[in-house]
Amino acid sequence: MAGSELTFAWSGSDRNGRATQGEINAPSVAIAKAQLRRQGINAKRVRKKSRPLFGTGKAIVPADIAVFTRQLATMTRAGVPMVQSMDIVMDGTEKPLMKDLVRQIRNDVSGGAPVATSLAKHSKFFDELYCSLISAGETSGTLEVMLDRIAVYKEKSEALKATIKKALTYPVATLIVAIVVTGILLINVVPQFASTFESFGSELPAFTQFVVTLSEGAQQWWLLIGAGLITFIFSFKRLRATNRKFASAVDASMLKAPIFGTIVQDAIVARYARTLSTTFAAGVPLVEALDATATAAGNAVYTRAIKQIRNDVTSGMSLLQATRASGLFPMFLLQMTSIGEESGTLDEMLGKVADQYEMQVDNAVDSMSSLIEPMIMSILGILIGGLMIAMYLPIFLLGSVM
């Protein structure tokens, strides 16, 4: 949605005279009414909808699109008409933004627009691959089959993302807690001990003096340190989103990271195989399927490699030769690609590769979580315990002297 657009709540009747209502985004009331007329809506009331002070808090996420796709696939396979299917999905959706999105798509479809065209208007949620597959399904008369394939693809993709997120959440959360606890100790607790140490009138142990100096620095510069940390995080994210060379360097370093790099590579291979299998099974030409796969790779290094595979295939090389030449894909994928090309079951073989590597990612994340947990607890113990020892060390030394 453009920054100049507003949200309008409307009520009126559709082409069949049935009462209906909803929301629409437009720059003005007049344009909103014009858009509704094009959708076959006779709007009796259109008013600007006030925005919540702190937002809705229920933004549409990819998991919502996966659920939406699965619901449509189930109902269309059961023979329910598309407009009626969307009515059912809309009624069962609790998120206001998702309900409004489905309502807009439903209104376009009921007005005679193809499903793919209606979805393409919302490219933020339905990418080019999604719309292309829906269009192919509508053209071939196999929309219910295509919806099912997209639903499986979305579900597998979201499950893979959730697995990777699971691998990151615990270490990151623990690191944040460790930083906060350490900061509180340095700023609030250590100064209390430091004032007590001044009354001893003797030189502090080197370790204790180091912690006291660190505390003094934290008290003086904590605001600047916090602001610098936040600035670094936002700058890093923005630079990665806008600077291609920086993003490539970050993606390359992620692939080389100990332990986690292997999980990232397996996840990319699984995503590559799943995307290529889905698009190829849908009848998308191999070159176009590789284009979609490159976009979905999620890593600049592999995106470049897949684009080069596409170029090699375009110039006459087989998929196996082009994939082997990239030097980035495992032998199992190459073997299954060879079998798939020879037997004409490339989509099935790549689907098996995707299943295998998705399972490997699941197992690797479980193993890594079991390994990381005691390591993190040890680091926290050393960090917090070290601060406590530094504070009590002068007291222990004073007791031994007396």
Please tell me about this protein's structure.
This protein is mostly helical. It is 75% helix and 6% strand. The chain has helices at residues 29-38, 62-77, 82-91, 96-110, 115-120, 128-140, 143-198, 206-242, 244-256, 260-281, 286-296, 300-314, 319-326, 331-343, 346-401, and strands spanning 6-13, 19-26, 42-48. The protein has a 3-stranded antiparallel β-sheet. Helix 7 (143-198) runs antiparallel to helix 8, helix 8 (206-242) runs antiparallel to helix 15 and helix 10 (260-281) runs antiparallel to helix 11. The N and C termini lie far apart (74 Å).
Residue share in β-strands: 5-15%
How do the strands of the widest beta sheet line up side by side?
Answer: 2-1-3
Shape: globular
Q: Tell me the number of helical segments per DSSP (H or I, 4 or more residues long).
A: 15
User: What Rg is obtained from the alpha carbons, in whole angstroms?
Assistant: 29 Å
**Unreliably modeled segments:** 53-57
Order of helices and strands: EEHEHHHHHHHHHHHHHH
Residues in helices, as a percent range: over 70%
The pLDDT mean sits at 82
SSE inventory with pairings:
Layout: E1 6-13, E2 19-26, H1 29-38, E3 42-48, H2 62-77, H3 82-91, H4 96-110, H5 115-120, H6 128-140, H7 143-198, H8 206-242, H9 244-256, H10 260-281, H11 286-296, H12 300-314, H13 319-326, H14 331-343, H15 346-401
Antiparallel strand pairs: 1-2, 1-3
Helix pairs in contact: 2-3, 2-7, 3-4, 6-7, 7-8, 7-10, 7-15, 8-9, 8-15, 9-10, 10-11, 10-15, 11-12, 12-13, 13-14, 14-15
Key descriptive features of the protein:
402 residues, mainly alpha, globular
